[in-house]
Design goal:
The chain contains 7 helices and 2 strands; from the N terminus they run H-E-E-H-H-H-H-H-H. By secondary structure, the protein is mainly alpha-helical. Helix 2 packs antiparallel against helix 3 and helix 4 runs antiparallel to helix 5.
Length: 184
C-alpha cells in the first residue's frame, strides 16, 4: 500500500512515468524522455559518427587507386589545382575535396545532441556526401551494428562493476581501511 502511494506521488513529479519489468517506478529524464529514448538518441549519435568514419575510410580506400594527394613525379601538377585537364583529374580532385570536407567536419564540427543537425550542416556544404553518410548510417544501423552484443556487454559490465563496487564499499565500511586504523 505504501509502495503504490509512493509511486503515485513520484509520478506527479515527472512528466512521464512507467513501470520497469520488475514493477519498479522508472523516472523520465529531463524533457520527459524515457531512459530507453535517451539511450537511443546517444546510440544514434554514435552510429552517425561511425557512418561518417565508414564513408571516410571508403574514400581513403580510393586514394591508393587514384593517387589522391600523391604523385610519383614531384614536378606533376597538383590535383587540387583549379585547372584540371582530364576527367580523371577532376574526379580525383573531387574525391580529395570531399574527403577533406568530411575529415574537417568530423574534426571541427561537434556532433552535438542531434546528429541530424550535423548531417544538415554537411548537406549545406555537400548534399551528396551527406546523403552518402545517411545511407551508411541506415545500413550500419540495420545490418552492421551488433545490437545483441551491446545488450550482453552492458549487462556483463554492470554485473562486474556492481560486484567490484560492492566489494569496495564493504571493504570501506566493514574491512577497516588504513585511514581508520591510523586514526585510532
Amino acid at each position: 500500500m505504501v509502495r503504490s502511494h509512493a509511486r503515485r506521488h513520484l509520478g506527479r513529479l515527472h512528466t512521464r512515468t512507467r513501470m520497469g519489468s520488475d514493477g519498479d517506478f522508472v523516472p523520465s529524464f529531463a524533457g520527459g524522455i524515457s531512459p530507453e529514448r535517451f539511450a537511443a538518441n546517444s546510440l544514434k549519435r554514435m552510429i552517425t559518427h561511425a557512418a561518417a568514419r565508414i564513408v571516410l575510410k571508403q574514400m581513403e580506400g580510393i586514394a591508393p587507386q587514384t593517387g589522391i594527394g600523391k604523385s610519383a613525379d614531384p614536378g606533376a601538377a597538383d590535383v587540387n589545382a583549379p585547372h584540371h585537364h582530364t576527367d580523371a583529374e577532376r574526379n580525383v580532385a573531387n574525391i580529395a575535396n570531399r574527403q577533406k570536407l568530411l575529415q574537417d567536419m568530423l574534426t571541427d564540427v561537434p556532433m552535438g545532441a542531434d546528429p541530424n543537425e550535423w548531417l544538415l550542416e554537411l548537406a549545406r556544404k555537400d548534399g551528396l556526401l551527406a546523403v552518402r553518410v545517411a545511407e551508411a548510417r541506415k545500413g550500419y544501423c540495420q545490418d552492421g551494428f551488433g545490437w545483441d552484443d551491446v545488450r550482453r556487454l552492458c549487462s556483463e559490465d554492470v554485473d562486474t562493476d556492481n560486484q567490484t563496487l560492492l566489494q569496495a564499499i564493504m571493504q570501506e565500511q566493514y574491512g577497516g581501511s588504513d585511514k581508520q586504523q591510523n586514526a585510532q
